[in-house]
Amino acid sequence: MVLVHIVLFKFRADVGNAVKQEFLSQIKTLKSLSCVKSQRLVAGGPSITTPIERSKGFQYALVSYHEDRKALAEYQASSEHERVTSTYFIPYKEDLVRFDFETDQADETLLGF
Asked: Residue 33 and residue 51: Cα distance in Å, rounded?
């Protein structure tokens, strides 16, 4: 089974694009962590959802894949994750949504595993 980790990020209205772009650049570096399955981590934004109101103000998203709950816990506890989030998001944060789920083994092939 593969665990899918999804995070939606919302920055405060006073935060400029330079901060958001540096956040996006830094968050993508987390794909190099060994607890990210096959280095599969994507992050992007800003949202292009139409109408934009459906994004509920969330501007950026991250999706990463992990072998299991233990690997996700390792990812969350890593010093790199702490560095990136505490430096590039938490000081500018308005809101965050996190959603994790385990896939059925039959669906792993759809994910390329």
From this structure: 35
Question: Among 52, 75, 51, which Cα is nearest to 62's?
Answer: 75
For residue range 72-113, what is the model confidence (pLDDT) as tens digits?
A: 999 999 999 999 999 999 999 999 999 999 998 888 888 888
pTM (two decimals): 0.94
**How far is the C-alpha of 12 from the C-alpha of 18, rounded, in Å?**
13
DSSP string spanning 18-87? HHHHHHHHHHHGGGGSTTSGGG-EEEE-S---SSGGGGTT--EEEEEEESSHHHHHHHHH-HHHHHHHHH
- What is the distance between the alpha carbons of residues 49 and 3, in angstroms, rounded to a whole number? 25
With tokens 């996700």, the residue in question is 72
Rounded CA gap, 91 and 5, in Å?
A: 22
Question: What tens digit of pLDDT does each residue of 31-70 get?
Answer: 999 999 999 999 999 999 999 999 999 999 999 999 999 9
C-alpha of 62 from chain center: 3
